[in-house]
Amino acid sequence: MSPEPLRAVDGRVPGRRGRATRDKLLRATSDLLAQRSYRDLTVVEIAKRARTSTATFYQYFTDVEAAIAELAHALGEEGPRLVEIISTGAWRTDGYDDALKLTDAFVDLWERHSTILRVVDLATAEGDLRFRNIRTHLLSQVTDALRDAIVKACDGKVEPRAQAAALVSLLAHVAEHRYGFEFWGIRLDDMRHSTARLVAWGINGREPG
């Protein structure tokens, strides 16, 4: 099935120039989010940054939150990369090296998309279903892959989906709060290795060597 074409608010499919304008508006939104709270962001500021008009903004997005949600949808492309690390991991053996790869992938994801993820987390906590669904879709892919790895490697010692959900929570929390740990004097490298040991242990039930 081919992907649904991009559409403007009125249902029209934008041409090359229209897509370029839409991309400029999204880049402007992303740039401004790095500078201030999304609650303070206005259509006027986004349009000015993109060197276009508010009327043009409303051709593509109904409001600021719609533009931010579109940026957040790109996070869905990150899921397969995390899933691949899990599905190809040597979890029946030690599993530590693959757990470290997964930990680093989470840290990298939060580093590259920290601005959007911050908004997603806040809006999700406030009950905005658009953002809750984006976060759920991203993390559910990883949870399912970890569940499958646990089923194969842990020999029924734990309830696999509960264990997978706990590991995803650990990975996301560590990635999100890496700078807080550094403020406490905990080096990122030490946190990476500690997290990887817990992930490997959580998947196969054996303490890494």
Give the helices and strands, then pairings.
Blueprint lengths: L15 H18 L9 H7 L4 H7 L3 H10 L5 H9 L8 H17 L1 H12 L3 H25 L6 H17 L1 H6 L4 H17 L5
Describe the overall structure.
By secondary structure, this protein is mainly α. The protein has 11 helices and no strands. Helix 1 crosses helix 2, helix 1 packs across helix 4 and helix 4 (about 65-75) crosses helix 7 (about 115-125). The longest helix has 25 residues, at about 130-155. The protein is elongated.
Task: Give the % helix.
Answer: 55-70%
Q: β content, as a range?
A: under 5%
Number of E strands? 0
Task: Pick out the low-confidence regions.
Answer: 1-5
Class from secondary-structure proportions: mainly alpha
> Treating each run of at least 4 consecutive H or I residues as one helix, how many helices?
11
Concise account of the structure shown:
It is built from eleven helices and no strands.
